[in-house]
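Quick log. Single chain, no ligands specified.
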Amino acid sequence: MTAPLRRLWLARTPQERRLLVIAASVVLVILLAWLLVVGSQASTALRGSLPALRMQAITFEQQAAELEILRSVPAPTIPDAPLLPLIQETIASAAMSGMLSTIEPLGPEQVVVVFGAIEFSVWLAWIAVLEQQNVRVEQVRVETLATSPVPGLVSVAATLGRVGAP
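-> predicted structure:
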């Protein structure tokens, strides 16, 4: 492989050889200068993005720590008792029995409640109590009672279920 290149080189006159060496040197210098400029620009761009990347890394570390904490917390257990007695008990303790129109179980883990006229703030407070007892609102329909002289009265129909239940 080198023999044909050597013959080609020796076939050139000394002036041609000198000219080829100078041209190759100029191309090499231009190539090196271009590489230095491109490298410098890339380095500057990377330095500019480094603070944002560091913040992302810190955020990822915090999220990973939070994930480990959440993984160590046991999942809420679903009591074996039916949901209906719990709902009835919370309604009675909140003095909402007079506002309740109907209550019927859809199974051991779901209950439908209908309130004909209830203050919206009372409804929200009751739902907060239920959430503390691992009961969630699965479906709800809230309608304002525009004809009521008391502001804030609504009628509510809701399906309640246990957190973690299928």
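The longest helix spans residues 14-72.
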